[in-house]
Amino acid sequence: MSKEELAIRGQFLDIAEVADDPSALRLRHVKDGLLLVHNGLITWFGAWTDGKEKIPQSCPVHDLGDKIIVPGFIDTHIHFPQAEIIGSHGEQLLQWLENYAFPAEMRYGDEEYAFGMADFFIKELLKNGTTTAMVFCTVHPQSVDALFTAAEKKGMRLIAGKVLMDRNAPAGLLDTPESGYDESKALIEKWHKRGRLLYALTPRFAPTSTNEQLALAGKLKKEYPDIYLQTHLSENREEINWVRQLFPERQNYLDVYHHHGLTGKRSVFAHCIHVEDGEWDRLRTTDSAIAFCPTSNLFLGSGLFDLHRARKEKVKVGLATDVGGGTSFSMLQTANEAYKVLQLRQQNLSATEALYLATLGGARALCLDHLLGNFLPGKEADFIVLDPGATQLLSMRSQKTRTANELLFALMILGDDRAVVATYVNGHLVHKRQPETEPRR
Ligand code: GUN
Ligand code: ZN
Q1: Which end of the chain is more exposed for a tag (fewer CB within 10 A), N or C?
Q2: CA pair distance 75, 125, nearest whole angstrom
């Protein structure tokens, strides 16, 4: 038997694509299912009774009983250097950046520190069932080397980039238009499409880049048409006013990025809370995507994202933690807060749509849905095992649920990293939850 064969039996949940209507979502529940993997790719998925004859000889079957297997979560926006400031009390975006984010990011100029924190960060993602993320590093190229090195060791599909920032930040965190261009180019050459890794140009947000820097970012995007772009857009009123003052010649916030060629199908804009009509049009016509960051938007008091509008405008949306403005690495907890944000907007989020946002929807936002997001044969074998009995409360609630949909919803409201018993990346087990240790006295 090849070591690269894997057969998983259990209860599966994913979002199936509906052939003639990509906007229609269907929760697929295979109660006694089988997933076959060869060399990191899904080769077969369906009912156990239909597939058991297809299991290669001498390939052992991992029978996961009543555990629930879902595709690995996709976090479409998160900051690697901000893991250490998660849950820092105080004020709103711009003050929080000054007081916590910038001082923390200074530390990543130290290569040894960055490599140590990268291992912690990747472990935390996997522990929470996140198998792919789009990640901000810091202005220091060594922070990108550290993160990609840690992700590569686990075989993860990860998108990341060096922050571009040439004004309005502490001196130790600034580059210049030229150094930002040169360093980004060298990192693209080194990491983009190396194994499963992909590079994202990362201008932090309009207030911290000059027109010269944004123009050079646009030049890089032209030189490497298949790289990504990630940044922030319309998160906070004070931020938006600042952008208006800094770029009076532009129609609106998004126009600052669009003017420099930074919109497009691989461009992901985090937050998008206070988006104007013209910006919605442009997000749609450029096929750009939004990262919806509910825990961050509540924590920093930024506002309530309008998911119904995004759906109506046919703009792609993925779910995101935005750690450390966001307060949890867990995409289950992020879905929980997304549900509450949308309740406050009189928009009801179903468990099916929440799972979509955290898996296939995220994959679509990142243009990776041909590779990730559900159990379609041919896709990459990133999946996680959830335990509906992970805590006493969740166990009690799970036993009272009547449908797969209800069970999934209970997992999202009550679950977190304790509910993730195992994480598989590229067909390999990369995280196994340790049993609870005795409580300390
Ligand atoms: N806008 C610019 N930088 C940041 C950041 O680090 N976090 C958040 N939430 N918004 C930003
Ligand atoms: Zn962010």
Answers
A1: C
A2: 9
